Protein 1
Amino acid sequence: MKTSFALRTVALSAATLVAMAGCAADPVENSSSTPAGYSITMTDPWVKAADEGMSAGFGTIENTSDQDVTVTAVTSDASTELELHETVANESGAMMMREKSGGFIIPAHGELHLEPGGNHIMLMDLTAPLRPGSEVAMTLAFSDDTTFDLIAPVKDFAGANENYEGSDHEGMNHGDMKMDDSDSEGAHDH
Amino acid sequence: MPHTKTSTTTRPSRRGVLFGGAAASLGAIAALGIDSLTSTAAPAGASEPPHGHTTIPFYGAHQAGITTEPQAHATYIALSLRHALDRASLGRLLRLLTDDAARLTQGQPALADTEPELGVIPARLTVTFGFGPKIVELAGSSAAEIQPLPKFAIDQLDERWNDGDLLLHIASDDPLTVAHAQRMLLKDARRFASVKWVQTGFRRSRGSEASGTTMRNLFGQVDGTANPSPDTEDFNTLVWNADGSTTMVIRRIRMDVDTWDEVDRSGREFSVGRTLANGAPTTGVQEHDEPDFEATNALGFTVIPAHAHIRRARSGNTSERIFRRGYNYDDVPSGSDISNSGLIFVSYQKSVAKQFTPMQQRLADLDALNQWTTPIGSAVFLIPPGCAEGGFIGETLFTS
């Protein structure tokens, strides 16, 4: 509980700045450029609640440096596999999500919005239910091997139901809210 | 008379303009608006500074929405916690709702706000949380101070307006803002709780009279003159507990406006002991004049009668006072009724049992106003202290 409170202070603060820059790998010593993991801030991260299967993470990543940075991967204990996704129209005009080749590029002094219906972080296979009001720790990895840790609160969200290209699955539509007491909040929360 | 005839045939009548316009283009007449046809008023918005961006701080020792000068619109929502909700889940719910309130009250959309454009005009939005006994006990504290009120003889309580586990009190000078905040909060609460009752209230709109004017209820009475003033020592002594909390009583008082119609002006003033014109005691001139309960008329009767509301409400024990912050309601009538009106009575006090209940008991025993008013709903909540940024409302109950 104590840990959760401390983390929340950062993740949910109304100031909305998540400044948990951390570098798993040492910054490149003799480089003139700022390591990506140190030049990134993330504002208002959140993850859609889901009981099982897939979910998605959103927020705004800002690059404060003079160079473009590239997010190449995301890892989290919440999902066995995570992907960087974009949402595009297929041949028939339907919006489909698919893995973003080459990762997310955040331009120098620019920002990237991860939002329902657009780019997002895809949690491919949840290891446990994502309950509303709980938190998900994620680590962004950059092309220069630096990383950035963030904590995202989990929110109920009815949208973000894009179809997954090349899949028969119903995309992210696993977070439907069951209201009967047997399935609702708390019944499995022990 | 040629002169008259010329005049009437050449001057376009309003009807002529309206029908001519309608025939030419319905769109054009709609765009013109009736004002441009009938009045010389300045264009809307020409000189009024908008007040939508005014904010009330969310974080602090006390929750906002109590000493805040009452906003024009308020919605009170009582939620029932879902079965089997545990302490950890309750903590998560309160963090979610605190975050929504902290953002929306400052004119920022909620996290994952589906209509962010509705979240940027707070118009003094406040969100105040209240806890019923179930939440207080689930969190691990004693609910002895917030038990339901004793049954009073005047009560005709309907279960649909009673009690509740979690109270959301949302208030703003803009009803669209209230509706959006309500929607965002309830979306985050839905998994944890269901709506038990909703009471929507109003006062005069912002700017229609001076801020701080005592409100009028739907009987036309100036209602709340004797209130202690926020931020005075008297107020702090009556309302705030040492930890920054207080208690709230909310009672839905039906007002029988039809039988009130049968009472003439002097009878109305006699029943309360105050004038309708400005709320002054019938022994005084100005609203805030002290009532003279000893004053007698020519016949030797007291000017303020024995059963007058203000006499019955007052106790010789000055600690038996409360802070009132109610709203009017005027809902959809049913059957052949033309009105469904009343007062959302709201009071704050340190102790319900020591301050509110003795007063309510006196009024239940005798109060001329009881002829036209009937309590139909009643609930008591703990209003936990405010929190600092990074904390959440109710966190102090979780410290054990």
Protein 2
Amino acid sequence: MKAYGGVQALNGASISVEEGTIAGLIGPNGSGKTTLFNVITGYQRPDAGQVYFRDKPITNLGPDKVFAAGIGRTFQLTRIFPRLTVLENMLIASQHSRKQRHTVRHRAMELLEFVGIHGHAGVLSGSLSYGQRKLLELAYVLIADPKVILLDEPAGGVNPTLINHITDRIRELNAQGTTFLIVEHNMEFVMGLCSTVTVLESGATVVSGPPEMIRTDKRVLEAYLGVDIDEDDKEETGPGGPNDSGSRRHEEASSDVAQ
Amino acid sequence: MPELTSRNAIKGGLLLALLAILVAFPQVFSNPATVNYGVYAMIFVTAATAWGIFSGNSGYISLGHAVFFGSGAYAMGIMINAWHFSPDSAFELLPLVALIGAGIAAVVGFISLRVRRHTYIVITIGLFFIFQLMATNFGFTGGTSGLNAPFFTWSNASFDTNFYYIALAAAVPAMVIAVVVRRSRFGLQLRAIRDDEDRARGLGVKTMRVKLASLVISGAITAVIGAIWFLFNGQAAPNTAFDPLWDLEIVLMAFLGGYGTVAGPVLGALIIEPGSLYLNTVSSNSYLSEIVLGLVFLVFVLFVPRGIIPTVTEWVTRVRSRGRPAVVTSVVTQKVGASR
């Protein structure tokens, strides 16, 4: 639970992400998605509730400890270091690395190449386009070899070609074993990429399940998706039960932020 | 990268030439009044460089660096008087002054570096006035009249020249330290803090430790140059060793030359300090230099906000890249390929 003044940003939000999957987190504006991200990654402290990572509580750890533990994240409005070069941005994110300097540098260039902005390595990152900044933020999170990556709107404000590019990168990383939790408004993006989708509304989990189920869940349609999907999908489905938090054994990062 | 090496060679050559000019200066212009300008210029070069090591890199604007300057001056004065040092051996106390400056910076930083931006600036001003009040009111600081330096037996002409070289011997290491910090991982962490401190911390930068370390380095250098200033000036009083205008002046020097660069504060000090000393001699009105200083600041903030060095660098790059395609990136790509 996280309260801002009288407003409770999160209340009864429960989400669990299984290792090796790509999970989605959706919900209307102000439903607490980013707050949930902040609570998981240590940028905000919950007033109540617990965050677990591989069965270990990480609830009140600082953001650096969470990052060192293996949970990387990006921000909705990217947070890069604009007056450092692209390569320097990469080096800043490799604080926990015990590797030799040139090894880190080499790895940084590899990752820049992986996301496709290696040609800009020597450029001040403030001069990158918005999409390129998103790629840089992803690349510098990757340099710490995180087990889980939380992406806050990776496709927001990015052109379709770049969205495809980002999707491919995420798939490739996932195939190598990285777990993802993605907040995104672009439904096509989420439904195409994620194996599980959790819906948040007013700080509480509404439903959690595979995309096909979310698409047709009545409460989700009411809360978030609106009519157009209703028209697309006439199929009647049973209510997807509220997120059952019973099976937490295989979870990689799980957050149970409830009162 | 032949282009890069030739650029480095030019840079290295320029630095050597600059050093040669600085060393030769009192021999060529042996007029004591001119050398006197030189001593003050070197004192301010050192102080502005020290300020840049902390504020230029971290983005924490200190308007209270006179705390370290004055503390260095007073530390030297108190130790000389207490331990009866001869003037010539006073310089042996400089390492101790550096330690005292570092200690004060550690304490001051531990308190003030918890807040940011405007709040930080206000706190540095507050700390400055606390130190000035302490200097005025404590018994061992000599109250409002301050402390006197021992009398040097050097001849009039050699006095200025000797002090010029002493100040230069402080300025050069200060600049070297500034360059080393700038190019190190430590400097990179500082600049990351300047850009987005929370994010840097989230990525594992030990922000408090890094900020504190840079303030300690900066404070130690500033204290040393404060002590040298005290010996040169002959005395330190609360209103001269802890001078609010001094604070503004070094900040102005850094901004004029180029905030955040190593060369900027040096250039700014070399322009402003001799300039204001000259104005003080030509005019009977001692406020003229301050008025001009204010005007210069205004003009620069309006027309050259980033300072001389960054602006000129940009012009040069623009002129040199004229007619070439606007792609900077191919060069870097080649470098990557080669490094494999």
Protein 3
Amino acid sequence: MTDFSSRQTRFDWSSRAYQDLIRRRRRSETYLRGAGLASIILAVSFLGLMLAALFSTGYKAFTQTHVTIDVPISAEHVDSADIFGSNWRRVMQDAVAGHFPDLEGRALRAAGEILSNGAQFMVRDRVVEAPEMIGSTLSITVPVSDPFDQLSKGLVDRQTEEANRRVTDAQIAAFDKLAQEGRISAPFNWGMFANVDSRFPELAGLKGAFIGTGYLLLVCFAIALPVGIGAAIYLEEFAPRNRFSDFIEVNINNLAAVPSVVFGLLALSVFLNWFGLPRGAPFVGGLTIALMSLPTIIIATRASLKAVPPSIREAALGVGASRQQVVFHHVLPLAMPGIMTGTILAMANAIGETAPLLLIGMNAFITAAPATPFDSATTLPTQIFIWADSPERGFVSRTSAAILVLLAILVVMNALAIYLRRRFERKW
Amino acid sequence: MPDDQRLMERAVNAERTKIAARGVQVHYGQTHALKDVDVDILDHAVTAFIGPSGCGKSTFLRCLNRMNDTISTCRVTGDIRLDGDDIYDRGIDPVQLRAKVGMVFQKPNPFPKSIYDNVAYGPRIHGLARTKADLDGIVESSLRRAALWNEVKDRLASPGTGLSGGQQQRLCIARAVATSPEVLLMDEPCSALDPIATAQVEELIDELRANFSVVIVTHSMQQAARVSQRTAFFHLGHLVEYGDTTQIFTKPKDPRTESYITGRIG
């Protein structure tokens, strides 16, 4: 006893060796902190780089160049009995001719290319709505076609040799004339959200993809959430611990790591070929993504069920609650914020999923928004895939813009998950 | 003399055996946690289980309302009878048993719900109240029995987890008595409480004796001496000695009991 205490007092805290030890310890701590900081800076700068690249190409797609033209709705071309089927091409030709009185023939037609192909249908729809317009002149703002949108945004180099650019000198002159007259404007590109897909970039929008994604998420949520929570409750609260439940647990974890394209192949062979479900439908996409989300939801739900303190279970059992009552009255409500967080994150993953949807044909060119989950549709990521594959220059910036829209949705969903967690999480 | 005999009978009635355990063995997997325990727990009395940590006293307590069923590796053999009925019989529903044998835990564990809902939960799931007024009555009388009514009557809707530790434990006692159990099991109910709250709970235990048979596990020998009429001393899974509290603390028969209460083992 005395020996021990005397040895304690003899330890020299100011010794050289001890000072060295302290210094080494501090140094390694500084290194660790520096390394952590460096990796965070690296990660953030990569993220910044990606966003910068997307913004720099994408921001231009958020405006669309428009031109305001006067369209004479002459009774000669527009048949008041069949307004819809009238010769709208001729009406537009007249309108262009009215703006360029000194052009003729081929040159006039070239100038007409400034207008989007959709312009005639916009004029048609306006007149169908208000037939009394026939005989008067309609002043309407329509999108310009993609090459002139590029020109207006400065993406076409005017110094390039004429043969090497998509707009001729004469067309540029015609466009500049309209610009001088103050007819060219570049308002916010609402069409990108309100229009469905189109071959013409200036008309293409994400409406179909939004609705397709919405249906897909709805189906996915409706299937994956109850099945996932049910499976997790059974595994966590009721299943006996034996080899069989271990086997299931390992496989659920494995399933979470299966590449998504495999799920696409599965959906193709089972849902489409065997069950005969419609190709490219959000319903099938939702089923597929639900299969993929299940492991994530099960794992998240089990984790939040586990996090409910055993004292709550004991308290409920102690007053004579059955196991089912313990789960549904006490454990599940307490685990719900965690389950919702996990589910939202799984849904956020599901939104960005592309590969399995390509395999079930959700990358088709579809120019109508789906009316039901059983109609063919695209989703945001497959729409991005389609646009990224399109040759028109206008789709380059639109692809980036669509990616930005997708990212914005993901940010909102993740923020919602964080909010739910903060709002409802309990401290024990 | 018939009169005298009747008096005798009444005295026996008051000290009637509530729970009779015979040859109880508990295994946790390979571990033999409780060896051959015989105990008669009396009605309207406080029975204290004392002993060093890991001696099996909590394990035995949890056999009495079959809480050990929730541990998959736990195996209980032997015979435990509540009012003569084998509680490990196939026909006995452990859920019903736990309504009759209430339990208060070591750490106060109110549900993260309102004070009212904490107390009303048991009566609700067992259908003890027909109307809202009935339920209000049960909640009030339970809180009164737990000596908590005056402190919380104006904030029954506020969360039970917002109370102080001692209040939380009394809330748990109110929750346990709300289902009108016949036996109240308490697993170290004061170990997480400060001395003042402990004194309140001890006083409460003494009052509860009027209506229930109370079994309390405690680490504090002073507490056992203060609140109990009967004391059982457990050591290494054996029930070493069981008898009147005064006898155990003044004239222990077993040398191990004497060592423990004088502080030489434990």
